[in-house]
Amino acid sequence: MPAPDARRGAASGPPRTDRADLTAWVAVAAGALGAMLATLDISIVNSALPTIQGEIGASGTEGTWVATAFLVAEIVIIPLSAWLERLLGLRTLLIVAVSSFTAFSMVCGLAGDLVTMIVGRTGQGLTGGVLIPTAMTIVAKRLPPAQQPIGLAVFGMTVILGPVMGPLAGGWLTENLSWHYAFFVNLPVCALLLLLLFIGLPHERADWSYLRDADWTGIAGMVLGLGGLTIVLEEGHREEWFASPLIIQLTAVAIAGFALLAFGQLNARKPVLKLSLMLNRQFLSVVVMALALGMVMYGSTYVIPQFLTLVSDYNALQTGLVIFWMGVPAFLLMPFLPLMIRRIHIRLAVGVGMALMALSCFISTNLTAESGGGVFTESQFLRGVGMILTMMFLNQATVASVAPEDAGDASGIFNAARNLGGSFALAGLATFQDQRIWHHSRRLEETISANSPRVQEYMDGLTASLGTIEAATGVLARTIQREAFVMTYNDVFTAMGVITLATVPLVLFLRALPKDTTLSLH
C-alpha cells in the first residue's frame, strides 16, 4: 500500500506539464487573493481602532487586543497549516478556512463589546492564517517549475499589498461609512474566493491517519510556545516587561512550549512541522532573512502612521495614502518579476533589496515638526522596491531549497518567521521610542534656562497672547514634547536602517536559484 504522502501527491491533481492549465491559474489566483485578505486584515483595523475602542467601550490598553488577538492566532496557526493540509486535503482545508473566516468577520462587524470582538478577531487569525502559507503550497503543487516564478510573483505582490492597503482601506471605510465595514467588506471577497477554490482545486480525500498519528506534544508545544512568545512581545512594553507577573508567567509558558516542541521533533514518528529543514543552510538563511524582512515591513508601517498622527495631525485616510506609496512598486515591477527571478542572482537581488530598505530608512532621518506625508514619498517608494525584490526572491528560494513534498512545511516556517520578525520589531521599537523620548525631553529641558533673556522674552510673549503664565508654560511643555517626538522618530529610522544594513551580509549564505528550466509566460 502506498504511503499517505504518496496517495496525497497522486490526488493533488493531474501530472504537471511544462504549461499549467486554466484551472491551475484559477487556483493560484485564489491562493493570492486569500493571502492578501489575511494580510490586509492584520492592518485594516489599525486605522479604525480609536473609533472601535470608543464604540465597544474599551480602554486604550484593552483596545490593543483587537489587533493582538488576530496576530497571536495567526502566528500560531501558520506553522500548523502544512499538517492540516495533509490531514484534510488542500481544497477542503481552504473552503473550511474561508467559510469560517467569513463568519468570524461578521462576528467582528456586529460586535458590541470587547469580548465578542476579541473572540471574532481570534477566529479571524486562526482561519485567515491558513490562507498565507497555503498560497505558496498551491504554487508549488499546481504549477510546473518553469512557471512557478510567475505564481510566486503574484503571491509576493499580494502579501506586500495587504499591509499597505490595510490602513488605506480601513481609513476610507471609517471616514466615509463606518468601522463595521472594515469587516463586512470581507463577505463579497470571500464569496469570490470560495468560487475560485471550487473551480481551481481538485478534491482530495481526508487522510485521518494524520489525526491518529499526530504529534500532539509538538502541536501543544507550538501553540504554547509561539502564542506565549507573541503575547510577551506584543504586551511586554505596556506591562513593563519582567516587572509584570503576567509577562513572567507567559515567558515560562513559552519556554515550556518550545521544550515540548523540541521533544516532539526528537520523538514523534511524524513531527507536526519539519524543523529539520532548517539544517539546510540555504533554507536557514532564507528564514533569517525573513525575520529581517518582517522587521522592516511591519516596523515601517508602525512608525510612519504614528509620526503622521502625533506630529503632522493626519487622519486615518491621509495616513493610509502615504503608506500606500510602498505598494506602488509591486504594481510597476509585477510584469518583470518572473524574468528577473530567472536572470538575476539571488544574492544580488536580495542584497540590493535589503540595501534599498536600509536607504529608505536613512532618508527619513531628517524629519522636523513641519514635515508632512510628502517627505515619505521617496522613502516609501524605495522601501517598496526593496521589499518586492527581497520578498520575491526569498519566496522562490523557500520553494527551491526543499523537496516538493516539504513545500508546505517550508512555507509555514518562512511565513511564521516573517510575522515573528514583525513582532520583534514592534516590541523593540516601542521600548526604544519610550527611552529616546525621555532622553530627548530631558536634554531639551536642560538647555532651557529660566534666566536666559531669550527664554524670558519668549515666555513674556506667550503670556501676553494667552493671558496666563500657566497657559504659556503648557505651550512650552507641549513644544518640548513635540520636538522630543520628532528627534525620537529620527533615531528610530536610523536604528531601523542600521539593523537592516547589518543583515545584508547574510546574502552570502544564499545559493543561486536553479536555472535548468525555461520561463514560460503563457
Can you walk through the features of this model?
- The structure is a single chain.
- The protein is mainly α and 522 residues long.
- The chain folds into three domains: 20-213, Up-down Bundle (Growth Hormone, Chain: A); 215-271; 278-522, Growth Hormone, Chain: A.
- 76% of the residues lie in helices and 0% in strands.
- The protein has 22 helices and no strands.
- The protein is globular, with a radius of gyration of 24 Å.
- The chain starts with a helix and ends in a 20-residue tail after the last helix.
- The model is unreliable at 1-16 and 516-522 (pLDDT under 50).
CATH topology (fold) name of the largest domain: Growth Hormone, Chain: A
Rg over CA atoms, rounded to whole Å, is: 24 Å
Q: Strand pairing plus helix content: what structural class?
A: mainly alpha
CATH architecture of the largest domain: Up-down Bundle
**Beta-strand content bin:** under 5%
Give a quick set of tags describing it.
522 residues; mainly alpha; Growth Hormone, Chain: A; 3 domains; 0% strand; disordered N terminus; disordered C terminus
In short:
The protein is mainly α and 522 residues long. The chain is built from 22 helices and no strands.
Ordered list of secondary-structure elements with their pairings:
Layout lengths: L3 H8 L10 H35 L3 H18 L3 H8 L1 H21 L3 H15 L2 H12 L5 H29 L4 H4 L1 H15 L8 H4 L3 H20 L9 H23 L13 H30 L5 H9 L3 H6 L3 H7 L2 H18 L13 H24 L6 H41 L5 H14 L2 H34 L20
Helix pairs in contact: 2-3, 2-6, 2-7, 2-8, 2-10, 3-6, 3-12, 4-5, 4-20, 5-6, 5-10, 7-8, 7-20, 8-15, 8-17, 8-19, 12-13, 12-20, 14-15, 14-19, 14-20, 14-22, 18-19, 18-22, 20-22, 21-22
